[in-house]
Amino acid sequence: MLKSKLVRKLTLTAMASLMVIAAGCSTGPAKESETQRSLKVMFYDESYFFQQYGDLFAMKYPNTEIEVISTQSIYSGNNGEVMDYNKAVRDFIDKEQPDVVMVGTDNYDKLANDGKLMELDTLIERDKYDTETIYPALLEILKEKGGGKLYGLSPTFGGSAVFYNADLFKKHGVELPHDGMSWQDILDLARRFPTDGDDKTRIYGYGTNYGMSLSMLAQNISSAEGLTAVNPGTKKVTLNTDSWKRVYKLALDAIDSKTVYNPKDGGFMGGSMEEYYQSQLFLMGRMAITTGDPYILQNLKEVKSSLKDYKPFELGMVSGPVDPADPETTRSVYLYDVFGIRAGSPNADAAWDFIKFINGEDFAKIKSRTMNNGLLSRMGYNKEFDGHSLDVFYKLKPKVSADMYSRTDEIPVEFYSQFQQIQDRELAFVQEKKKSLDEALKTMEQESQVALDKAIKDKEANAGKEGKAEEGSGDAATSDAGSVNVTETETETVTE
């Protein structure tokens, strides 16, 4: 079991060093005479936790002893078998009893609805905790998924934008991109750039660092427009529709135009740092438009200092990609870590102090100096990076449908690999002119539905076997209750 049981204690010297690093913070260190407190935090890696959160928190609250309970144990021992992740997380929380619970948006709502998380609204009101400068749309997402109430906060989030090489646009006489770009807009502009030249010198209208296949491009377009191939509620696959046909045709036309970067050799497969950077065409000024997260800015900063003869270009950023039917919103905003308090925690006050701190202004001031952990939810601190304004990532309102993450665990994981194989095969037939797009979509829908029905049937059968096995073990436990009681007692003693 990979659970970490080490408790991090900062010395006065270490805390003094952190005080220097955090110069400018308005809040001073806590009084050492305060009562010592303990806090169990659920997180995926102890070292990373203290690097990102724990050390800074300990600087302000040196009287709080933190123990990190690593979630790596959730994944160990399943021998590569498909697991019910949401159930595994619930079981982990029940067993380890952490005070601070770190979860993703895919199980945040389930834990809240199951009564596993403490409501934060009353604590916010009690302490007059300022949430006015937290990105409002993120609070809306968390409240929506919490049934109208707030059960967690996320100090950072991820987002996407449209990046472009303004020099290439000016050179080829193409008008610059604008805020609220749809995929149709992006690909229409991309097609206006030349496609001649060899693979080592030519430019591309659009692409990403590692290339963009037909299925990947179609997936990105459909995600922006809120289209899903599988409905978790009805267990139906829907692909043979006008909406999906339009998405695949848009992607197919873009790929056929040769303006989208999609290297036949798969792109960079290893080598020196210089070779790596040379393979990143947008960074090297050979791609007019790309889409991605703020880390593109980090990469651009690094390449300037890494390559001797690097030629920088004028960078532009606009909001998008958006759904043309709702251009003021985006589905490309996602939360990294959502922190909540386990319902019934005996250390709820200490847990709340931690959540307040990592979502507060002092923490934001320090973290605004780097791009290592995404965009800050606390607005007004991530204003720019390397001279580029970050406002573009806050312009659009995140759009998360109520059932975007709910019930997805009802679709067996193994189905998606089968779906991908069916899709890739049929799209290859279309590109080779062996099938029409209509024929391919019809086959994709029919065969994928058969694969989904079988995967669900197999999952239910396996669940039945597991249930019988648990009943059997329960009978055995009842018939030998004495030995079970001894084992439980011994376990409690060891744990203490």
UniProtKB/TrEMBL annotation:
Pfam family, any one: SBP_bac_1
Secretion signal, residue range per the UniProt entry: 1-22
Family: Belongs to the bacterial solute-binding protein 1 family.
Matches recorded under Gene3D superfamilies: Periplasmic binding protein-like II
Chief localisation class: other
Entries under PROSITE patterns matching the protein: PROKAR_LIPOPROTEIN
Biased composition annotated in UniProt, kind: Basic and acidic residues: 454-471
Organism: Paenibacillus vini
Organismal lineage: Bacteria, Bacillati, Bacillota, Bacilli, Bacillales
Name of the protein: ABC transporter substrate-binding protein
